[in-house]
Amino acid sequence: VNPVFCKVALDTPLRRCFDYLPPRDAAAPVPGARVLVPFGRQQLVGVVTALADSSDLPVEKLRQVLRVLDATPLLSAADLALLEWAAAYYHHPIGSVFATALPKLLRDGRDPGSPQVFWSITAAGRVWLQDPKSLRAKRQHELLQWLAARDACDEEDLAELLPGWREPARALLAKGFVATTSRQRDVSAPVISAATAGPRLDPDQANAVTAVTNALGQFAAFLLDGVTGSGKTEVYLQLVETVLARGESVLVLCPEIGLAPQLVERFAKRFATPIAALHSGMTDRERLGVWHDAAVGRARILIGTRSAVFTPLPRLGLVIVDEEHDASYKQQEGGFRYSARDLALLRAQQVGVPIVLGSATPSFESLHNVATAKFMPLLLTRRAGNAQPPRLSLVDLRAHAVHKGLSIPLLQAMDRHLAAGAQVLLFINRRGYAPTLICNTCGWIAPCHACDARMTVHQKSQRLSCHHCGAEEKLPERCARCGYEVRPLGHGTERVEETLVERFPGFAIERFDRDKLRQQSQLEGAIDRVHSGEARILVGTQMLTKGHHFPEVALVGVLNADQSLFSTDFRAAERLAQTIVQVAGRAGRADRVGDVLIQTQYPEHPLLQSLLNEGYGGFAAQALVERNTAHWPPYSRLALLRASGVQPDAAIQFLQQAKLLMENPDGVTLQGPIPAAMVRKAGRYYAQLLVESAQRLRLQKYLAEWIEKVEQLPSARKVRWALDVDPLDVF
Ligand SMILES: [Zn+2]
Ligand SMILES: [Zn+2]
What we know:
32 strands, six-stranded parallel beta sheet, alpha/beta, binds zinc ion, seven-stranded parallel beta sheet
């Protein structure tokens, strides 16, 4: 009998799988199953990617699998293929890619179907909790109080949320103040009862639903291009209904944790079937539970943010990527910098099912894919109830007086709309009180000591904070250099709010930014106050531009559009246009045309002009011509080798050596290395090397060969580096 070799993906920095022999007394594991293997002196959990009949190493050098953890594979052949493709395309170690795809508890070797143990407080426990003497056993009291506030608590949640809980729990159990129950995981088939009927579709929506429905069972990519309020979600819902009726499941990706609950709610209202919702704000236990529900087919609808793209779903029938232009689909930190949108496309292609990418402001990549007939466009032109699109106009800041960041025309428009009973929304992409603290006398500006950046003033908390590294210090009253008075310069959300309180007394103001709304529940509270009409003026950052629709908002003010107009990043214009159109889309309803006022020092700027005169579509068409001329994506392919070091020159030196490894490559250009836009950040010095090619395959071939050499460089060990394929921020 020929020996069988197991190829195992292990979370190590090496770019390959490791060969093992099957366990001595058991059958070889199946591909997709987890195994426990010896690795050096450690034992690691890995995933078998394949069985082979040969190995590069002699048999006597190979070690045996210690234990097979899954009798049935955790990942299907299609799941394995997706992860292998991702490792190859992003040139990232395969074991680390697998680690990204699996919930932590599975990486730790946990059995996904093992019974859950729940702890709860007993009646005697509640009595004891009221006894002041219970306070003496501090940790027992704390745990009991915690359990008293909840139904039943899962062991793994407890371990994560209350570290060291087990000791007091044992003492409480002995006294009969707590009880445990064990529950087998539910793997029963889902009940899919009739969905509540959806509303009648308008002709555009009906066309979109028909086009995608006709494509079910095969790969096809659709760009659902619809203005805010045109009913994209209704199209999704109708499609999902059809897919569920076929006995298939649906993967829905959404950009932010903040938006997932809204979407889940819409789906839950419509479908009487379990929905798996996966996002970054969950405990490990919850994550495992949701993963398991999806993987065994108990939940046929999976709604999740970025990493949900890797979750197994049996009988996948449709993939939906909502707000496909959103930058949060791209992992921009760490080593594995994947795009969930692009991987979703690949997944749909590999499985052979349609994918719908939805947006009111499609990414240029997607528009290009429509132009080259790779995507089929589905246009939704009508806003709900035939609402008119908002009127965009510019306020020339050079020609009008400005009161603390708010121009007179904007203030007058606010007066008018507020008097008419409408709500007003002001967008400013800057949180805090002011972006700068400056000395009146000598011109000193409060710097971050770890970054090439200024400290932002936070008046309410009386702190200076760096928005790049998180450094904080007390707000100084005097200049650090000359000792005279300092003052905040410029405007952030906090300062605009202060101005509004003075200028519009009697109108309730709701501020939307990360400082004010730290938790999901706070965000939901704020949104409720807007919907109820209690809040009259909304002021906030990017947070306001996403997802939420505020029909009573009749006026939108964009306070500082200018900072993006002259950015060196080739994507800056695309992003600014998306932001303006998205924030403008928050306004308006059927019987009233919304007004959007954009304050700018550069009203003649071509970007603003084309956006105003031709809308997002016209703007994009023009900007794509420029991209083509300059050979930027989507007309070329990019990768960025990013590096940082503690020494000022370490990153540049490493990148210079990396550049010399393979000179004059065929059809590939290396540009740089250059220092990053912000050279020093959190005490490290950043630089980058741009790799560009007109052809994807050329670039891929080059990177595969090059990166193996790059990681052999001695200087690679002195820096942190990462390869970013299809980077979003280039400068
Ligand atoms: Zn000074
Ligand atoms: Zn800093």
